[in-house]
Design a protein that fits this description.
By secondary structure, this protein is mainly alpha-helical. It is built from four helices and two strands, in the order E-E-H-H-H-H. The longest helix has 9 residues, at 32-40.
Length: 75
C-alpha cells in the first residue's frame, strides 16, 4: 500500500506538483522503502518525467575510449 500522508513535492524544473503515489508509479523499479528514502532525502532533486527526459546530458557525459578517459599532464 502506498502511503498518502507524505507531503507533495514540486518538480525541480517546472514546479509541477508530484505526489508520492505518482513518484512510485514513475519509478517502478524502486521498492516502497527505497522510494521513501529518495523522497525524504533533501539531496535528491525530484523531476517530472517531461523535465527529466529533457535535461541536458552534456554535463553528465564522460569521455569515451581508453586513451581519452584519463588525461595525462606533464610533471
Amino acid at each position: 500500500m502506498i502511503r498518502t500522508d507524505l507531503e507533495n513535492k514540486n518538480c525541480a524544473d517546472c514546479n509541477q506538483l508530484i505526489t508520492f503515489k505518482d513518484f512510485c508509479r514513475i519509478n517502478p523499479t524502486f521498492s516502497l522503502e527505497q522510494a521513501k528514502e529518495f523522497w525524504d532525502d533533501s539531496m535528491f532533486l525530484i523531476y517530472c518525467p517531461e523535465c527529466y527526459f529533457n535535461l541536458a546530458e552534456s554535463p553528465f557525459k564522460t569521455r569515451r575510449g581508453y586513451f581519452n578517459y584519463y588525461k595525462r599532464y606533464p610533471i
